[in-house]
Amino acid sequence: MAKQSIFGSISTLMKANINAMLDQAEDPQKMLDQLVRDYTNNIADAEAAIAETIGNLRLLERDHQEDLQSASDWGNKALAASRKADEFRAAGDPVDADKFDNLAKVALQRQIAAENSAKAAAPQIASQTEVVNKLKDGLSGMKQKLEQLKAKSAELVARQKTAEAQTKVVDAVKSIDVLDPTSELGRFEEKVRRQEAIAQGKTELAASSLDAQFESLDDLGELTEVEARLAALKSGGAPKPAIEG
C-alpha cells in the first residue's frame, strides 16, 4: 500500500495542469523549480520503497534456496539411513535395522517439511519478482518523466523571459513613438513649439516697435524742414522748395 501511495502521488503530480499552475503563480520559475524538486523527492521515496521490496524478495529467495538445499540434504540422510538399515537387516540385526529405518523416516519427514516450505514460497517469490520488475520499469519511466519535466521547465522559463523582453521592447518603443502626441517626445515637441511661437511673437513685437521709431524719425524730419522755411521767411528770404523742377 505504501508503494502504491508513492506512485499515486507521483501520478497525480505528473497529471497536474502545469499551465493552470503557471497562470496562478506569482513567479513561474520558482514554481517550476519547486515542481522539479517535489518530483525528484518523490522519485527518491520510490527508490527507497523499491529497494526495500527487492531486499524482501532476496530474503525470500535465500530462504527458498535454503529449503531446497535442506530438502536435498534430508533426502540424502534418509537414503543413507535406509541403506544402513538394510545392511543390518541383511546381517540378521533387526533391532539396529529398525533403528536406522526410524532415522530414515525422521529424515524423510524433515525432507517433506522443507519441500513444502519451498513450494509455499515459490508463488510468493514469483509474485514479488513480477512486482519488482514492474516497479523497476515504473522507476525508469519516472526518471524519464523527470528529464522531460526539467526540459519543459527550462523551455517555459526561456519562453517567459523572451516574452518579458519582448514586452519591455514594445513598451520602450511605444514610449518614444514620434507620431504619438501623448508620448514623452510628443510632449517635448509641443513645448518646443510653444517656445518657438513665443520667440516669434517677441520678434514681431520688436519689429513693430522699430517701425514706430523710424516713423517718428520721419515726422521729426518734416518738422525740421518747416522750421527752416519759417526762419527763411523771417529773414526776408524766399523759402526754397524741397523739390526743384
Architecture overview:
The longest helix is centred in the middle third of the chain and has 82 residues, at 94-175. Helix 3 packs antiparallel against helix 4 (94-175). The mean pLDDT is 80. 89% of the residues lie in helices and 0% in strands. The chain has 245 residues and is mostly helical. The protein contains five helices and no strands. 8% of the residues are buried. It has helices at residues 2-15, 18-24, 28-90, 94-175, 184-234. Keywords: Coiled coil. Belongs to the PspA/Vipp/IM30 family. InterPro entries: PspA_VIPP1. Residues 36-63, 132-166 form a coiled coil. This is PspA/IM30 family protein.
Percent range of helical residues: over 70%
Q: Which stretches of 5+ consecutive residues score pLDDT under 50? A: none
Task: For the record, give the distance between the C-alpha atoms at the N and C termini, rounded to a whole number.
Answer: 137 Å
- Largest sheet, strands/sense/barrel: none
Q: Give Rg in angstroms.
A: 57 Å
H/E order of the elements? HHHHH
Tell me the number of helical segments per DSSP (H or I, 4 or more residues long).
5
Per DSSP E runs of 2 or more residues, the count of β-strands stands at 0
> For the residues shown, what is the average pLDDT?
80
What portion of the residues fall into strands of 2 or more residues? under 5%
Structural class: mainly alpha
Overall shape: it is: rod-shaped
